Amino acid sequence: MLLHASCVAVGGKAVLLAGPPGIGKSDLALRLIDGGARLVADDQTALRIEDGVLCAAPPPAIAGMIEIRHVGLRRTDFAASAPVALYVELAPMDAVLERLPDPESMLLLERRVPMLRLPAFAASTPAKIRAALAYRETE
Questions:
Q1: How far is 91 from 81, CA to CA, in rounded Å?
Q2: Which of 38, 76, 87, 128 is the most buried (most CB within 10 A)?
Q3: Does position 115 have pLDDT exceeding 70, yes or no?
Q4: Is the pTM higher than 0.90?
């Protein structure tokens, strides 16, 4: 399955960054990479089941490449595959988002994936993604 999403690995866990063209997928991926994540794929991510686990990988034609707006296409280190842990639907800065949303998930290749909606260009978005991966929800 090919998904219109960028993807980075944070602590070895794949985070899918999805949204319409120009929403900031590559920009957010770059900010996460700057904070220690590894690129999996930019703009298009291949999903497949490996040993029963949903995994993300780069399509071969764009493996190791990232678009850095106002700089150009660049090659970088990348993860060949990572298990999917989170799907982030990116929203514009003026979008009205729930302050304390109920947990959501989506189905990708018959696997449930936790989902968040976050503003693409907010300074805190990379930290919120790391927190979603690191902290347990309250019971």
A1: 26
A2: 87
A3: yes
A4: yes
Task: Assess whether 43 carries a catalytic annotation.
Answer: yes
Looking at residue 83, its pLDDT comes to 98
Work out the number of other CB atoms within 10 angstroms of the CB of residue 19. 20
In this prediction, residue 139 carries a pLDDT of 52
Domain covering 2-93+101-133: architecture: 3-Layer(aba) Sandwich (3.40)
34 is catalytic: no
Instruction: Look at residue 118 in the predicted model and tell me its pLDDT.
Output: 97
Q: Is 4 a catalytic residue?
A: yes
Distances (CA, A) of 107 to 21, 37, 115, 121: 22, 24, 10, 26
The active-site residue, picked from 51, 77, 94, 99, is 99
